[in-house]
Amino acid sequence: MKLKKQVTVCGAAIFCVAVFSLYLMLDRVQHDPTRHQSGGNFPRSQISVLQNRIEQLEQLLEENHEIISHIKDSVLELTAHAEGQPALPQHPLNGSWVLPAESRPSFLSVSPQDCQFALGGKGQSPDLQMLAVYSLLPFDNQDGGVWKQGFDITYEPNEWDTEPLQVFVVPHSHNDPGWIKTFDKYYYDQTQHILNSMLLKMQEDPRRRFIWSEISFFSKWWDNISAQKRAAVRRLVGNGQLEMVTGGWVMPDEANSHYFAMIDQLIEGHQWLEKNIGVTPRSGWAVDPFGYSSTMPYLLKRSNLTAMLIQRVHYTIKKHFAATQNLEFMWRQTWDPDSSTDILCHMMPFYSYDVPHTCGPDPKICCQFDFKRLPGGRINCPWKVPPRAITDANVAERAQLLLDQYRKKSKLYRSKVLLVPLGDDFRYDKPQEWDAQFLNYQRIFDFLNSRPDLHVQAQFGTLSDYFDALYKKVGIVPGMRPPGFPVLTGDFFSYADREDHYWTGYFTSRPFYKSLDRVLESHLRGAEILYSLALAHARRASADGRYPLSDYALLTNARRNLGLFQHHDAIAGTAKEAVAVDYGVRLLHSLTNLKRVIINAAHYLVLGDKDTYHHNPAAPFLGMDETRSTQDSLPERTVIKLDTSPRFLVVFNPLEQERLSVVPVLVDTPHVRVLSEEGQPLPSQLSAVWNSATDVVPDVYQVWGAPQPMCASLPSCTLPGHTGSPALPLPHNTRSHSCRTPRSPCMSLFSRGPTVPSRVFAPLTPSHSPGAGGWLRSPLCLQVSVLARLPALGLRVLQLHKFLDGHATPRASTRLYLHGRDVPVRKPEAVPLHIFPAAADDFCLENQHLQACFLGRTGLLQSLRQAGEQQVHRVSSEFLVYGTRTSKDKSGAYLFLPDGEAKVQGPPLEASLQLCCRTVLRQQPQHSYPSPQPYTPRDPPVVRVMEGPLFSEVSSYYQHVQTVVRIYNVPGVEGLSLDVSCLVDIRDHINKELALRFSTDIESDDTFFTDLNGFQIQARRYQRKLPLQANFYPMPAMAYIQDMQSRLTLLTAQALGVSSLHSGQLEVILDRRLMQDDNRGLGQGLKDNKRTCNRFRLLLERRSTANKVQDERPISFPSLLSHITSVHLNAEALVMPVALEKPALPALRSFVPLATTLPCDFHILNLRTLQAEVSYGPGAVGLWWGSFPCPQCCASHSSSLQDDSLPSAEAALILHRKGFDCSLEAKNLGFNCTTSQGKLSLGGLFQGLELGSLQPTSLTLMYPLGTASNSTNIHLDPMEIATFRIRLG
């Protein structure tokens, strides 16, 4: 009570200070003579005086905002250390569960200046805005002659008389790190031979050039060559013969990859290049991603690259840009108010990056200059005219023929410098090809260069050779805008390579692995941050000799496996089945290792006495609450066994903001109480764990003699790690079990256990006792969910106690609606269950923020209503199925080619279980497109409704999809949106794609918004002139629709394809099963589907200051709440039970790493420990770690340690300041949020650590930006990402 009075007094003080400050402000404006004098430069007119006073008022408002922010921080600090526990829930008679109001104050304080960025208005409009370009073009696909997708190109012979044509032929080999073959098989079969031949053949003639991009392959080759060959490579790079382009670990997919992973693989590649070769990439090369995001040019620009190249762009866009000589442009970010993000981009004009489509417009002629196709080889020219070896007799004729193509291609560009790539997939793998290409081309070059009358200079070159010559030709510094070159904003999705073949299927293909990718990404970020903090604290305590530095090698391996999966045939889901398995195994291996890194770091950080720390890899101090048995399985949760001694949990919050979250834990008893570290009870909820619609997880049994623990009913909980043997009971200290019930609602409902084909297990009877042989009973499997406040980037210690009397943990009640189906029901004993044979009436669930209503017969969402509003918003969901065409061209891993004509159809509701009505078409489209069929399940759904104090949920069980909609009854972020999960299993479908559609009364017309790589938002417009499949776009993180009153955002935890085909709709493709190849080289369909859990958040927001002019701009931003909800969805709290069972458990205390609260528009993208500079110490035999002898290395085994296995004392701190939209109302958010106009002090950010050095660098740490300063204050503009090299200790 005393603290509450203090909080009340402090709140009143804030109000008084605010009012008093405003009073002083007005008084000073009116009466302060010095302030009047400061405006002396203005004319003494009334308008000028008024303008001056407005500026003064704005300045004072800013000062007032800072004062209040400081007061708020003080109040938060006062209350954080006292009554910080959430209040316990109450359950009035005949009423809903009520969670008492928070005892701690919450703030939302956004500086007015921080809202200006989203309003825009600054800077000049670009010359090319891709949304406008799409609206302009007819997309009529007219035949262009020899250049089928273009036009006839003509020129005058004397056009180059005054300015000769300068041609750079760039030899390259595109090496996919996995596609038809696995990464390793590609390396051993082809890539190593390419690089070996390169090293040999490039040294034969200094005029030869070659470029390479995939550092994943190059590093593997580097590890297997001698020191002499490494030195030769460095010489080739040094003299400009060999160029590393882009320099990323892979050439990433730009549709599905998240910007964290895109940056991480870029850093990994650049750091490897700097350490091993001493080179910094200058130009970007991306010939094979299936469409291009505007995020990538921003990342390259901030990595200090000055130019880039792209290839796979819609053929109509290429034709239009070629006709207007806009194939080279300055690519600018849509949100950039000036030109700071500009990077020169070269777009290749023709169909492909292979030799027939790169020398000029006629592939029949260009193919004759691919000398790998000389007669007698393994490949030939499809146009039936083979190449001819160049001789003195034919060189004039052949050179003239090739020059004609060069001249025609150059007409598509603004300069007289021409780029001609020379390569294809896995080229130059044999010395014979090197000789054939280089010798024949050199003869042509020698001839052309010896004829001044031809006005051409041709040579081999690298990509940067070309860009350098271009910049030199126009007389400007590299990186600047060449005169006359257009500025472009936007992206290049969606891609079509011919006809109506849109590459929009891969936005969803293999969603299981897309989801696993994001899980690994979240774990990697968490492990990086926790490892860096633990290492810094260990060094400060001089305990680094006992800390497992070897964990750094696990981090490095995980970075590289995550980076490998960003390859454009990996996360895209477009590789062979065996290759997908190889990727999955790598991801799972790294996920397991990252859990180990997190456990080791958490162990050290929560110890009250660091001197008691002892690392024992055979018996970790902490365990994980979930594991995955195979690369294609859903996670299995651990059941914690309780007895008279308390069990301790350590919960890790990987977010840089404090969070109030519901943390789920599986236990073996209903008699459980959850306490804080100090012993205070925490709000909790007990609920059953369900295997299926009507079957709870039963008791767990160990079958004696079985190879592994079995279950009393399938599926169930199993004991991990115990093989079992005849006549041997389980060890008495066995304290945990695994349950195939993951954290996600949908997985906890539908995961299956092991299959036991020949035995049906019955409940235990006396004859099944261990003494009689055969059975051993283990505990129940229940879920206790606890509401806990978790420190930012910190670790919270919780206690689990078993009790037999006193206050019981509140239990969720469940209603089960069978809809007339005759199915057996297993009733849980510990929680109430009510069974209703018939269908339910429509019903609603609500919390203090919103009310969600559902259709009783389907259990699907029908409407939403926000607290304090009378208006009910229609937000209904339905499932639909797409088929594929019956013609020759069908959907496959890449392409989405749905069947049928445009129509509104579907049998009556009662017969088909069509789940909701369609909206009427806004207008009959110009293009006839297919319409998906309503999903028609075989049986009516079983609907289960669970209501509890912390959350309630509705589960609907259909034949191929089981969906859960959960509403959290808690303050803050968790309670402001709906948690939606869909477990999809379409393994019995043939050529079908399952979609989830939300239909609303939002009048969005033809506009919707999707994110690019989780980094920025791109406006989309439904194009009626294009087929349905052209209107789908990638959704790595979110999509939304809006009108003047409302915005509905669908946030996702995995990349999927999304569209808005009608006004007020959002539609997402959940999974695809396709039986055939789509003729893009894969040679397979998509038939290896997994049971996949897709997780979403659905957020409805009110728009308070919407502006139609603003809405028509091609730029948009999420709200702050949407940003925070997205990171909550993608970075779940990780639970680690203490595994030790010693009577004298070492004292544990929560770890709070941040001393101050970060502004809520700042995101710590990573805190990545950098690799040590490992060398042999002076006069010593052993390895040295930085400037000290490595504490874990000795001379006897130093030679076996890899250089990349040891950490340095430096780390890369990567910060992102997010742009956000202030027009969305943010009332009663229940969490603290303050912005600071981009200002942040890093000096005292990390509690208990000193910031030894702070050096701003380029994004990938290759270039220092300015000199290191003693100041630790930084500033970031909205949307910017900044990297700092720091030293903590």
TrEMBL record:
User: What's an example Gene Ontology biological process for this entry?
Assistant: mannose metabolic process
Task: Report any Pfam family annotated for this entry.
Answer: Glyco_hydro_38N
List the membrane topology term(s): Single-pass type II membrane protein
Concerning CDD domains, the annotation shows: GH38N_Man2A2 (cd11667)
UniProtKB keywords: Disulfide bond, Glycosidase, Golgi apparatus, Hydrolase, Membrane, Metal-binding, Signal-anchor, Transmembrane, Transmembrane helix, Zinc
Q: How is the cofactor bound?
A: Binds 1 zinc ion per subunit.
Gene Ontology MF, one: mannosyl-oligosaccharide 1,3-1,6-alpha-mannosidase activity
Family recorded in the similarity comment: Belongs to the glycosyl hydrolase 38 family.
Identification of the protein by name: Alpha-mannosidase
